[in-house]
């Protein structure tokens, strides 16, 4: 008997250690902020409390004092309450993983929540009624309704198994195996303990099941990360292509061709500016982090210089750079100044002025691009503009949020447009 008690205490401590591994993994790097990981963390934490409650049974197996009996009652109640939360959080995890929606998801979660609520209620009242358990001088004893505490996990795990079978076409073979493992391992341990009170295998079973989940999560995380990197490359390609519009290339080359005859020196300068502009777009493909604002500003200056050669005195540019000591996502300003050119020049006979301004506050760096053109609402009515401008702004806003937690605000009227970017320090 003493050897069995010692073995169970050792198994419980091993179970806690095994459960701490996935819990620590999720807490490090704030991985728990992902919904699936959060549910899994709930399972892990609940399992730790469940094992801690089971430890009271073995550490206080022959209580002599009343305080020992009370402590054993509290520990036993903790065990059953925590085990109900293990099942509940696991139901949230599996329904989210299987992407259940609508009535099926609601029915599953309500069913699990209902039976778990029954177990929690009986667990809380058992210290007073002895329904699930009671304590004597001989320690923990099973109550007349103990079988309910075993039917609850049996029902839940059978439900989980049914969900996996019904949704197996959504899963890879490896995923099906993982799910069946971390369903049947604790289920088998619980079934064994239902008929005998010996070695506490169910706690180790659940702990091992959590490690199975961890391995699966980690694998899926790596797959998702590689997919995200691929999507980022594709996004950068689309961004670069969206910034190099055919009309700009053709017009710039046409201007350079004319200057070769009229002003070879300026043509040489335009070739260098054009080359630097293209190089800036190509460099954006490699960019994974924000770049210094000065580099982005230089890219925009090349763009506007080439546009000035096309429009002449119709396009006036003013730079009011109050600060440049900050970082910004690459290709942030170009679509904005391109929109300003279109709004301020293309449909305004007298031309217009574009002002690029930066300043700093205590909270952030502020970049403002102002034009005195016809405004975005009137510009939308011009078929020559198309949807490119709006796509470019959408890309800018999303990259600002993702890369530097920045914001973009647009104010437009028939007297012009002002775009304001705020980048926190």
Description:
The chain has 425 residues and is an alpha+beta fold. It is 68% helix and 12% strand. It is built from 13 helices and nine strands. The chain has helices at 2-27, 35-59, 66-97, 102-129, 146-166, 173-195, 201-243, 246-262, 264-284, 293-311, 334-346, 376-380, 388-404; strands spanning 133-136, 139-142, 291-292, 315-321, 327-328, 352-360, 364-371, 407-413, 416-424. The strands form three sheets. The protein has a five-stranded mixed sheet, with helices on one face. The two termini are 64 Å apart. The mean pLDDT is 82.
Briefly characterize the structure.
This protein is of the alpha+beta class. Helices cover 68% and strands 12% of the residues.
Question: What does the secondary structure layout of this molecule look like, with pairings?
Answer:
Blueprint: H1 2-27, H2 35-59, H3 66-97, H4 102-129, E1 133-136, E2 139-142, H5 146-166, H6 173-195, H7 201-243, H8 246-262, H9 264-284, E3 291-292, H10 293-311, E4 315-321, E5 327-328, H11 334-346, E6 352-360, E7 364-371, H12 376-380, H13 388-404, E8 407-413, E9 416-424
Parallel strand pairs: 4-6
Antiparallel strand pairs: 1-2, 3-5, 6-7, 7-9, 8-9
Helix pairs in contact: 1-2, 1-7, 2-3, 2-7, 3-4, 3-5, 4-5, 5-6, 6-7, 8-9, 8-10, 9-10, 10-11, 11-13
